[in-house]
């Protein structure tokens, strides 16, 4: 604004900015109303509860200060649970994304029966996660589990194994199921992203003599970036807060060696009946996700300006 | 603030042309009372029973409407806690011993306020007292059960065992013999997964003469309990149990017994019906729970009705409904459906005629209940469910200490 | 869709005309595709097989792969069990899912479009606020939601769950639509404005067809999330006829014994509508493909 001749595009942009803030309101209003009306109250209530002393029957006994947070940090198994959470999120999201990139590339090719394969891939996503976990619990049972029986019948194992009976194999089995249910969604987002890659760009690349790998990494992948970044972001949040898989599959395992912060929150509500401590842990969990996502946004920049 | 949120929510909905559906409560009309009744589901006969009962009751009492809500045992605590926190507790609730414990916080009517004296007099006093808090009873028992040892006669014959074990040592010996048969067969089924670990543990601990404390203090790391858990660990270490007892839940394990792959398991009355339905060919029998030295002791469990006080206006309606439920025919039918032992004298007479319930009724005098009168028991019970399975890998005293620490922290 | 007429539908997908090679390779791909399909379907085949078994057979030791006795009537009797009014449950799920999806879309599309096209001071704060809604754990939020809807006298209504589903899926809808709107070059739209299209017109005629894959993705994602929502429905909908399928399933789980054949059969029925929706919409995805490559 000081020197109008210096940078005209920048100046114009700034002007647009000021006007737009008011203009934005009608466009954003429905979303803001929904968030304000439905999300803000329970979130605020959770925050409030984390500073209250709530009896195990739900009676509010008054102000608790930081006691609930103190209780959370006094839990001896907290480091292990945080470590599990990190392994869980990073592992599941990374593997899901890698598998999905390959799968989406495959499903983008044309071949007879592609629609059927696409439909089959969508099924684990369409099914409720609780049911998918339940069927794995049922299938992996050492006595009446079909999967165990199958592995024995095909000679892979000599005798049935209790996959969900110890923390390590239970945790890994759950992670595998988490990947299994995350892949369809991720694949689908990437597939949708692949549709936006114009065919003539690919042709141009081929004419220029680019190899397949070069075409993929230099042309296709950069165009996938926005969709992929959002898909990974949503995955990180969902996997972080995923309760049903671990609760269903490792819930019977004693101790906390297979817990993430989310399942620990659940155990504090259900087992210890301390909704106040659970709220505190939930607030902490929320802050951790917030920090992780903030880093993610800084590094990956899924919202970089066009 | 509330009005703003409400206006916003309605505006959002209205602009988009959405219509609210579902039940609005029309309880305003001329002195009508609406009772909210929340019950857990024992099985597929539970809901039809309550629907019929409510219909019959409403026909007799046209001014009272009963709104029934049936929840699975998995979900009922969560739904209930949310409702209580939101000041929307049901009027009548059926629950395990956690129900009467709400009396501690003054949320409940006393037992003699929600049923007539005649009804209360018919209930076996031991059951009423089992859930009394500081001498005051808040819950009226609905169903009762004790635990006993189910055993597979065929496997016993194969392993050359003449009679069911009475003591722990005999149990270990018999279980090892059966495990030695091979072919995926286990001697004793020990479910220490989170579903019902406190039940299995209590039977063992009570068998060593332990108790979990009283109305004022919960103590779990007693010498007797340590002895019991140590012996349980011995059973596991010597491969007398199924693999991985620490993470095995009760319901699936009972099923494995029904399928003939387990020699002995602790069970309760409804298992009788399950065997008849799923594997009638099974050669089975029931014996008293083995104890350390053979002295009879086992776990007794009851579920209860409680009435939430709230503003106190619905007391009369609650009493009418519960008295109706405890009428002999209605009540006996309820217990017949679910396969439990009735907790009333008149119901007990009817049940005594059934041979399959005999072992369980015989066990009643020696049965010990959970110290549910102490609200801290719910913490202890939760801690058992989450932690006791660790005896598979950790020393028993350490595990008990860890549980005790949870109980103490929960206050 | 106007775009369908612009591009020859027959060519959708294979743009480079290389006549001989594809026919040979295609069937290899079909074989690989078959294996992939089998992997993704395997657990649900176990479920399907279980749905045809009798109650005793489901928990047999050792297990059977296929039912020894077939009980197709499970798929009929489940509609009339005493445990739960399944036809009402299916209806509730349909109403709540369609309502939630539409509401989320209606709220998200304008916001996503505007944030993708304009810079304004509160843009990042807005997008972050939307994202934050996704980070809260439903388990702990349920009690706050219950209190809120009780005070609003909206508990036990479809509307409550439509609002909850729309609000908690908004972030995905906004962010994914934002990324798709951003990917459309500004020039296309500006050209339309020069031709005299109003902003709404250009959105309807130019933008929406171009971001169609994004809309499809959003609809599928939101619909599936609504369809499978459990934690809030359990708390907010106490009346059995209002409850969705996910809550209805728990009614078959007894204290000591569960009707697994019904749990499995209902789950299968629950998966089908989503797969059918996807089958219908998958063609639109191809339509979007041609639209994306128009200019």
TrEMBL record, chain B:
SUPFAM superfamilies per UniProt: Periplasmic binding protein-like II
A Pfam family per the record: SBP_bac_1
Organism phylogeny: Bacteria, Bacillati, Actinomycetota, Actinomycetes, Pseudonocardiales
Keywords, sorted A to Z: Signal
PANTHER family assigned: ABC TRANSPORTER SUBSTRATE-BINDING PROTEIN, ARABINOSE-BINDING PROTEIN-RELATED
The protein's name: Extracellular solute-binding protein
Keyword Signal: yes
Signal peptide (from-to): 1-22
From TrEMBL, chain C:
Entry keywords, A to Z: Cell membrane, Membrane, Transmembrane, Transmembrane helix, Transport
The ABC transmembrane type-1 domain, residue ranges: 90-281
Superkingdom in the source lineage: Bacteria
CDD domains, per the entry: TM_PBP2
Listed Pfam families: BPD_transp_1 (PF00528)
Disordered: annotated span: 1-23
Membrane topology: Multi-pass membrane protein
Residue spans crossing the bilayer: 27-46, 90-114, 126-146, 158-177, 210-239, 259-281
Subcellular location as annotated: Cell membrane
Keyword 4Fe-4S found: no
UniProt keyword annotation of Transmembrane present: yes
Family from the record: Belongs to the binding-protein-dependent transport system permease family.
PANTHER family hit by this protein: INNER MEMBRANE ABC TRANSPORTER PERMEASE PROTEIN YCJP, MALTOSE TRANSPORT SYSTEM PERMEASE-RELATED
Protein name (Swiss-Prot/TrEMBL): Carbohydrate ABC transporter permease
Source species of the chain: Actinokineospora xionganensis
């Amino acid at each position: 604004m000081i020197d109008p001749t210096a940078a005209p595009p920048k100046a114009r942009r700034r002007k647009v900015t000021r006007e737009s803030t008011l203009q934005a309101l009608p466009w954003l209003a429905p979303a803001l109303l929904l968030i304000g009306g439905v999300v803000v109250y329970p979130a605020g209530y959770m925050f409030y509860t984390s500073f209250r002393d709530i009896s195990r029957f739900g009676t509010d006994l008054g102000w608790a200060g930081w006691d609930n947070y103190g209780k959370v940090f006094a839990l001896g198994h907290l480091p292990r649970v945080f470590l599990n959470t990190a392994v869980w999120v990073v592992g599941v999201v990374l593997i899901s994304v890698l598998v999905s990139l390959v799968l989406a590339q495959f499903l983008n090719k044309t071949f007879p029966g592609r629609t059927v394969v696409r439909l089959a891939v969508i099924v684990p996503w369409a099914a409720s996660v609780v049911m998918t976990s339940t069927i794995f619990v049922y299938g992996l049972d050492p006595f009446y589990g079909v999967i165990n029986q199958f592995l024995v019948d095909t000679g892979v194992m000599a005798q049935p194994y209790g996959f969900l009976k110890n923390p390590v194999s239970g945790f890994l089995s759950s992670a595998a199921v988490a990947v299994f249910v995350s892949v369809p969604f991720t694949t689908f987002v990437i597939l949708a992203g692949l549709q936006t890659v114009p065919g003539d760009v690919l042709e141009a690349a081929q004419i220029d003599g680019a190899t397949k790998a070069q075409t993929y990494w230099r042309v296709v992948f950069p165009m996938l970036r926005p969709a992929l970044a959002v898909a990974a972001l949503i995955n990180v949040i969902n996997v972080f807060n995923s309760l049903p898989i671990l609760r269903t599959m490792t819930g019977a395992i004693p101790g906390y060696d297979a817990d993430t912060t989310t399942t620990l929150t659940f155990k504090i509500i259900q087992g210890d009946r301390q909704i106040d401590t659970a709220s505190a842990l939930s607030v902490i969990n929320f802050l951790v996700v917030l920090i992780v996502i903030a880093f993610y946004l800084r590094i990956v920049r899924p919202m970089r300006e066009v | 603030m509330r009005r703003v949120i409400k206006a916003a929510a309605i505006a959002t909905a209205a602009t988009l042309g959405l219509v609210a559906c579902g039940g609005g409560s029309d309880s305003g009309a001329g002195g009508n009372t609406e009772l909210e009744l929340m019950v857990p589901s024992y099985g597929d006969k539970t809901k039809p029973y309550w629907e019929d009962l409510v219909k019959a009751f409403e026909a007799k009492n046209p001014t009272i409407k009963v709104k029934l809500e049936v929840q699975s045992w998995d979900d009922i605590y969560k739904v209930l806690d949310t409702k209580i926190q939101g000041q929307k507790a049901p009027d009548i609730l059926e629950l395990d011993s956690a129900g009467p414990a709400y009396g501690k916080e003054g949320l409940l009517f006393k037992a003699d306020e929600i049923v007539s004296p005649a009804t209360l007099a018919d209930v076996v006093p031991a059951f009423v007292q089992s859930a009394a808090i500081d001498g005051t009873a808040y819950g009226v028992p609905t169903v009762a059960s004790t635990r006993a040892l189910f055993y597979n006669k065929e496997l016993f014959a194969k392993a050359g065992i003449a009679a069911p074990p009475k003591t722990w040592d005999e149990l270990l010996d018999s279980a090892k013999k059966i495990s030695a048969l091979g072919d995926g067969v286990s001697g004793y089924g020990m479910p220490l997964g989170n579903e019902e670990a406190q039940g299995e543990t209590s039977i063992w601990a009570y068998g060593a003469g332990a108790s979990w404390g009283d109305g004022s203090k919960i103590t779990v790391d007693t010498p007797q309990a340590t002895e019991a858990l140590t012996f349980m660990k011995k059973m596991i270490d010597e491969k007398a149990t199924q693999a991985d007892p620490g993470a095995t839940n009760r319901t699936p394990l009972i099923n494995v017994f029904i399928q003939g792959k387990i020699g002995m398991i602790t069970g309760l009355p409804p298992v009788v019906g399950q065997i008849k339905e799923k594997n009638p060919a099974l050669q089975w029998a029931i014996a008293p729970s083995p104890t350390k030295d053979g002295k009879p002791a086992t776990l007794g469990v009851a579920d209860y009705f409680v009435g939430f006080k709230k503003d106190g206006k619905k007391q009369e309606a609650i009493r009418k409904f519960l008295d109706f439920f405890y009428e002999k025919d209605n009540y006996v039918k309820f217990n017949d459906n679910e396969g439990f032992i009735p907790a009333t004298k008149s119901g007990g007479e009817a049940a005594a005629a059934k041979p399959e319930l005999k072992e369980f009724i015989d066990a009643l005098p020696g049965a010990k209940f959970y110290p549910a009168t102490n609200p801290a028991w719910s913490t202890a019970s939760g801690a058992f469910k989450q932690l006791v399975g660790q005896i598979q890998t950790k020393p028993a005293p350490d595990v008990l200490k860890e549980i005790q620490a949870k109980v103490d922290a929960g206050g | 869709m106007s775009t369908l007429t612009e591009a020859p539908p027959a060519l959708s997908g294979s743009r480079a005309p290389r006549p001989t090679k594809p026919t040979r390779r295609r069937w290899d791909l079909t074989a690989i595709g078959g294996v992939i399909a089998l992997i993704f379907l395997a657990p649900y085949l176990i479920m399907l097989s279980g749905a045809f078994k009798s109650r005793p057979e489901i928990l047999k030791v050792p297990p059977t792969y296929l039912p020894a006795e077939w009980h197709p009537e499970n798929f009929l009797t489940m509609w009339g069990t005493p445990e739960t009014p399944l036809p009402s449950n299916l209806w509730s799920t349909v109403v709540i899912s369609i309502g939630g999806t539409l509401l989320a879309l209606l709220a998200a599309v304008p916001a996503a479009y505007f944030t993708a096209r304009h810079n304004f001071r509160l843009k990042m704060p807005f997008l972050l606020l939307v994202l934050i809604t996704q980070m809260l754990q439903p388990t702990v939020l349920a009690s706050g939601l219950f209190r809120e809807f009780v005070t609003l006298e909206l508990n036990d209504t479809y509307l409550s769950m439509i609002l909850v589903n729309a609000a908690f899926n908004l972030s995905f809808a906004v962010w994914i639509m934002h990324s798709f709107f951003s990917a459309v070059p500004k020039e296309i739209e500006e050209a339309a404005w020069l031709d005299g299209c109003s902003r709404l017109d250009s959105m309807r005629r130019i933008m929406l067809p171009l971001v169609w894959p994004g809309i499809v993705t959003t609809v599928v994602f939101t619909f599936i999330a609504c369809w499978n929502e459990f934690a809030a429905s359990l708390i907010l909908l106490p009346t059995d006829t209002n409850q969705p399928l996910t809550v209805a399933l728990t009614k078959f789980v007894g204290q000591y014994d569960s009707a697994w054949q019904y749990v499995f059969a209902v789950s299968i029925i629950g998966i089908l509508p989503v797969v059918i929706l996807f089958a219908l919409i998958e063609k639109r995805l191809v339509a979007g493909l041609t639209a994306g490559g128009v200019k």
